[in-house]
Amino acid sequence: MSTEQNLKNVQSVGKNTSKFPGDITNTIQYCEKVKSIAVVYLTQYQSIPYKRSSELIYDMFGIKSSQGTIVNFNKGCPDALRPIENNIKNSITNDAGAIYFDETGIYIDKKRQWLHVTLNYKYTYYKAH
């Protein structure tokens, strides 16, 4: 975890400014480790509610975050994980190829959908539709 500070010194003879790194876009910025722990591990893998996840982030890192912040972290996950998803799909279709396929019916929001599973020795890919 790191802290970035933007310093500005305005004097009568001139002005000195510095810029934040390009990936710093908001007044409060959370590092990727905090985001990944809050989103992937706590709320998705462990199924811990947002409020408890927020409390745990504070207990672990001393960082206050709202439930809304954790919701926003979740919203950003699909785009952040897209390169990993593409890597898995490419591995299954381009390397040794898939060695197993299956599909099963599941319910998502009370609607019947199909969950397709494709895997090889290294990866498993799930796709619902």
Automatic annotation (TrEMBL):
Q: Name one Pfam family in it.
A: DDE_Tnp_IS66
The record's listing under InterPro entries reads:
Transposase_IS66_central
Please list the residue ranges annotated as the Transposase IS66 central domain: 39-127
What's the protein called, per UniProt?
Transposase IS66 family protein
